[in-house]
């Protein structure tokens, strides 16, 4: 299954795993501990990894949409000879671009002291920008919202508008008794386009609450909201954001017949290997028991025919 879309999906999967392994436990600890537990290095590294992963996700989805656009709207432009190499290079560029955009997050994130006005309590936590000035938080949150959400989703929407128009035209232009091979090819492209569209929809729904909270917080940066409603909404938004990195494999399994077939095949192969290993160990135990039984019988026969038994008879 090493084709162009699946190479992109492998990159997407790696970004999801990176986010879940490094950022989800750290994010959970923020709601369980009173202060930041991971030091200054962790404060710079974790936001950097998280933003890199978000960038990889949304830019890979944009690249996947562009690939589906070429496959459906301009199929004659596809060059299959060196496609895997070009896609690997494109995926590498996406990672490099995401890392570059996340560098300011590592530079400006630091441990900062916040105070709760109602109780005059103070706490230290990791924040992405300094206290001084109200412009920095607003620019940071708005730039993140535009670069990692609005602009990519707008580009994807344009691609899918052209894809939908092309599919509608091809459905009208195709004769009733058309070439079965062409029909299957179009249906396959439709299914893959739907899969990518579902991925995009999941990303848009899962990350929108986090962006909304981030925008709201940046415009009220010096105030700490301690209400239960804000807490519940924040935790729900974070869980939803991390859920996006978990649902893609399930969505792919449900939507893609080829992926479902290959996954079942690999799963069955693993199960068969386990069964074979179990049967082999049983056979080995059975052969060992048979060998032991034969050696016992031979020993008994030698005792019957040999001296020890004769001596016993004499006794």
Overall description:
With 315 residues, this protein is mainly α. The chain has 2 domains: 4-255, Rhodopsin 7-helix transmembrane proteins (Rhopdopsin 7-helix transmembrane proteins), CATH 1.20.1070.10; 270-314. 80% of the residues lie in helices and 4% in strands. It has 9 helices and 2 strands. Strands 1-2 form a two-stranded antiparallel ribbon. A hairpin with a 4-residue loop joins strand 1 (110-116) and strand 2 (121-127). Helix 3 packs antiparallel against helix 4. The protein is globular and about 75 Å long. The N and C termini lie far apart (80 Å). The model is unreliable at 299-304 and 306-315 (pLDDT under 50).
Mean pLDDT: 77
Coarse structural class: mainly alpha
In terms of per-residue confidence, which ranges show pLDDT below 50 for 5 or more consecutive residues?
A: 299-304, 306-315
Please give the CATH architecture of the largest domain: Up-down Bundle
What would CATH call the class of the largest domain?
A: Mainly Alpha
**Sheet with the most strands, sense and barrel status:** 2 strands, antiparallel
In spatial order, strands of the major sheet run: 1-2
Instruction: Determine the CATH superfamily of the largest domain.
Output: Rhodopsin 7-helix transmembrane proteins
Per CATH, what is the topology of the largest domain? Answer: Rhopdopsin 7-helix transmembrane proteins
Write down the oligomeric state: single chain
Helix content: over 70%
Query: Which geometry do the CA atoms define?
Result: globular
């Amino acid at each position: 299954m090493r084709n162009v879309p699946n190479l992109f999906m492998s990159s997407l999967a790696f970004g999801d795993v990176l986010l879940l392994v490094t950022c989800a436990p750290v994010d959970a600890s923020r709601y369980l501990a009173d202060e930041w537990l991971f030091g200054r290095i962790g404060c710079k590294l974790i936001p950097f990894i998280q933003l890199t992963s978000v960038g990889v996700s949304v830019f890979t989805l944009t690249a996947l949409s562009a690939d589906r656009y070429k496959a459906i709207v301009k199929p004659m432009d596809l060059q299959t000879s060196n496609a895997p190499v070009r896609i690997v290079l494109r995926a590498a560029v996406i990672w490099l671009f995401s890392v570059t955009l996340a560098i300011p997050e590592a530079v400006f994130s630091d441990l900062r002291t916040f105070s709760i006005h109602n109780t005059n309590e103070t706490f230290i936590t990791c924040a992405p920008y300094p206290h001084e000035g109200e412009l920095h938080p607003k620019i940071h949150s708005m730039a993140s919202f535009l670069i990692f959400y609005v602009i990519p989703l707008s580009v994807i929407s344009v691609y899918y508008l052209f894809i939908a128009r092309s599919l509608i035209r091809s459905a009208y232009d195709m004769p009733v008794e058309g070439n079965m091979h062409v029909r299957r090819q179009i249906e396959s492209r439709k299914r893959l386009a739907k899969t990518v569209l579902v991925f995009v929809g999941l990303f848009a729904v899962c990350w929108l609450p986090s962006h909304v909270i981030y925008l709201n917080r940046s415009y009220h940066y010096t105030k700490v909201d301690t209400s239960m409603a804000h807490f519940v909404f924040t935790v729900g938004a974070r869980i939803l954001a991390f859920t996006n990195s978990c649902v893609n494999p399930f969505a792919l399994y449900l939507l893609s017949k080829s992926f479902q077939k290959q996954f079942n095949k690999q799963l069955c192969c693993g199960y068969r290997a386990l069964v074979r290993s179990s049967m082999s160990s049983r056979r080995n135990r059975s052969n060992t028991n048979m060998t032991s039984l034969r050696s016992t019988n031979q020993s008994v026969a030698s005792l019957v025919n040999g001296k020890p038994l004769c001596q016993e008879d004499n006794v």
